[in-house]
Design a protein that fits this description.
Layout: E1 5-10, H1 20-37, E2 41-44, H2 58-68, E3 73-80, H3 86-99, E4 104-109, H4 114-119, H5 127-142, E5 147-150, E6 155-159, E7 173-177, H6 182-190, E8 193-196, H7 202-221, E9 231-239, H8 243-250, H9 254-263, H10 278-284, E10 288-291, H11 293-307, E11 312-316, H12 323-342, H13 346-357, H14 359-385
Parallel strand pairs: 1-2, 1-11, 2-3, 3-4, 4-7, 7-8, 8-9, 9-10, 9-11
Antiparallel strand pairs: 5-6
Helix pairs in contact: 1-12, 2-3, 3-5, 6-7, 11-12
Length: about 375
C-alpha cells in the first residue's frame, strides 16, 4: 500500500454522570488536538437516546470544528438516513461542504440504536432498506441530478440541490458496514467508499477480503469502481510509552464502556465469564490494542494483510483513559506509527545510513581539512616571522 491515512471515529460514548456540555467540548478539543498532530480525518456520530452518545447532530459539530481546525477532514460517522428526509440532509451536507471549504465528508448508515428507531415509530427491520432508498436519491442529488422518487416514507418531486460541491470536487461519501455483506453491497451499488466499523473484531477481520470482493462485484454491475484508498478500517487502540502504563490507563473507564454495551447496544463486548479481566479478553481476541506503538503497528499490519490493503485507519475514540492520557495516546501514534505507514522517514534513514557507512572516509576528510588549516596557519606564521 501507499500512504496510509489516520483518523478517529467518535461515537461518542461518555459516562452518563458527567457534564454533557463539557463532554461535547472535550470531543471538539480532541479533534483540534488531532488536527495539530497531522491526523487526516475525524468522523462524528449521530444518536438520539440512551444518554451516553450525546451528539444528535454531527453537522453542527463539524460546522463548529471547521472554525477551530485547519486541515483535518470532518465526516458524519454516520448519519442515520432513515431519520431524515433525503433532500434536507443532502442540502445541509452540501452547505457544510462549502462552509468547511471541501473538508466535509458524508457517512451513511441505517441507525445503530433500536431505541432511536422506536421513538420515531420506525421498524428496525426496515431501516436497511430505508437507508438504501435515501442514499440512492442523495447520491443523485449530490451529482446535480433532478430527482423524482416516491416511497412509503418520503417523496421527491423534481428535487434538485442549489449548490454544487465546493471547488467542483465531489464530496466524499462512505457507507458503513460491520460484518454482513449488506454494507459492501450498498457501497458498490451507489459508488461510495466503505467504512468498516469494528474492523478488528475477529469475525470482521475474517470477512474483510470477502466483503471487499462483494463490494467490487456489485460496483461493476452498477458501473462504479471501488478504490482501496476510500476504504476506512475502524479499530480500538490505546497506547502509552510502556504496556504497563497503557493497561493502567484504560482501567480508568473501560468498565463503564463495557457496561454501556451490555445495557444499550445489540451485543456485549465482553462475555460474562471474561468480565474479571476485560482488557485481556479484548486484546487476546485481537479486537483492541492496549500497549505500545509497536503493538499498534502490528495491528495495522494485520489489517492490511487480512484486507489486501485499505486507505485509512480510524481509531475508535473511547473514554477508557483520562482525557490527558487519551491525548498522549494519539500523540504517540502520530510520532511513532504514522512514519511506519507513510514513509515519512525513508530519506532520513537513507541519509543516516549513508553517513554511517561513510564514516571512515568522512573522518579522514575532516582530519585532512583540519590539518590543511593548521599547516596554512603555520606557514603564515613562519612567513610573518621571516
Amino acid at each position: 500500500m501507499g500512504h496510509l491515512r489516520f483518523g478517529t471515529f467518535i461515537p461518542p460514548i461518555h459516562p452518563v454522570g458527567e457534564n454533557p456540555t463539557l463532554c461535547i467540548e472535550r470531543d471538539m478539543q480532541l479533534v483540534e488536538h488531532l488536527d495539530a498532530l497531522g491526523f487526516d480525518e475525524a468522523w462524528i456520530g449521530e444518536h438520539h437516546s440512551a444518554g451516553a452518545e450525546v451528539i444528535a447532530s454531527p453537522e453542527l459539530v463539524i460546522a463548529a470544528l471547521a472554525e477551530r481546525t485547519k486541515r483535518i477532514k470532518l465526516g458524519t460517522g454516520v448519519s442515520s438516513l432513515p431519520y431524515h428526509h433525503p433532500l434536507i440532509l443532502a442540502d445541509r451536507m452540501m452547505q457544510l461542504h462549502h462552509m468547511t471549504r471541501g473538508r466535509a465528508m458524508f457517512g451513511a448508515g441505517p441507525g445503530a440504536l433500536v431505541s432511536d428507531a422506536m421513538m420515531m415509530g420506525l421498524k428496525p427491520e426496515r431501516q436497511r432498506d430505508m437507508m438504501e432508498e435515501a442514499l440512492d436519491c442523495m447520491m443523485r442529488l449530490f451529482r446535480g441530478e433532478t430527482v423524482t422518487y416516491k416511497t412509503d416514507w418520503f417523496e421527491l418531486k423534481d428535487a434538485v440541490l442549489q449548490l454544487r460541491p465546493y471547488g467542483g470536487k465531489p464530496m466524499e461519501v462512505c457507507t458503513a458496514c460491520v460484518v454482513t455483506p449488506s454494507g459492501p453491497r450498498a457501497a458498490g451499488k451507489f459508488g461510495t467508499g466503505l467504512l468498516s466499523l469494528g474492523a478488528t473484531a475477529p469475525e470482521a477481520l475474517a470477512a474483510a477480503a470477502k466483503n471487499w470482493q462483494i463490494a467490487n462485484d456489485t460496483a461493476a454491475q452498477h458501473g462504479h469502481r471501488m478504490a482501496r484508498e476510500d476504504w476506512r478500517m475502524v479499530g480500538l487502540v490505546h497506547i502509552a510509552e510502556t504496556k504497563e502504563q497503557a493497561l493502567a490507563d484504560v482501567r480508568h473507564g473501560i468498565g463503564e464502556w463495557i457496561q454501556y454495551f451490555d445495557d444499550v447496544a445489540t451485543h456485549p463486548m465482553v462475555p460474562p465469564e471474561r468480565k474479571g479481566d476485560p482488557i485481556a479478553h479484548l486484546v487476546a481476541i485481537g479486537r483492541a490494542v492496549v500497549g505500545t506503538p509497536d503493538d499498534c503497528i502490528r495491528q495495522v499490519e494485520k489489517l492490511e494483510q487480512a484486507s489486501g490493503g485499505f486507505g485509512c485507519f480510524l481509531i475508535t475514540d473511547t473514554n477508557w483513559a483520562t482525557f490527558e492520557a487519551k491525548l498522549k495516546s494519539y500523540e504517540l501514534i502520530a510520532r511513532h506509527v504514522f512514519p511506519r505507514f507513510q514513509g515519512q522517514n525513508t530519506l532520513r534513514e537513507q541519509s543516516y545510513a549513508w553517513v554511517r557507512r561513510s564514516q571512515d572516509h568522512f573522518k579522514a576528510a575532516g582530519r585532512n581539512a583540519q590539518q590543511v588549516q593548521i599547516d596554512r596557519h603555520a606557514g603564515k606564521a613562519k612567513n610573518a616571522a621571516e
